[in-house]
Amino acid sequence: MSEAGLDVALRALPHFKAVPADLVAQVASMSRFVRLDVGAIVFREGDPCRQFYAIVNGAVKLYRVSADGREQVVHNFHAGATFAEAALLSFGRFPVSAMVTESSTVLLEIGGERFVELLRTDARLAPAVIGSLCMRLAQLVERVDELSLVQAGARLARWLLRQPARGTSEPAVELGLAKKELAAHLAMTPETLSRLLSRWESEGWIRNERTRVALRDGPALLRLADGESGPT
Amino acid sequence: MSEAGLDVALRALPHFKAVPADLVAQVASMSRFVRLDVGAIVFREGDPCRQFYAIVNGAVKLYRVSADGREQVVHNFHAGATFAEAALLSFGRFPVSAMVTESSTVLLEIGGERFVELLRTDARLAPAVIGSLCMRLAQLVERVDELSLVQAGARLARWLLRQPARGTSEPAVELGLAKKELAAHLAMTPETLSRLLSRWESEGWIRNERTRVALRDGPALLRLADGESGPT
DNA sequence: CGGTGCGTTGACATTTCTCAACTGTTGTGG
DNA sequence: CCACAACAGTTGAGAAATGTCAACGCACCG
Question: Which of A11, A96, B191, B215 could serve as A62's disulfide partner, Cβ 3.0–4.6 Å?
Answer without folding.
Answer: A96
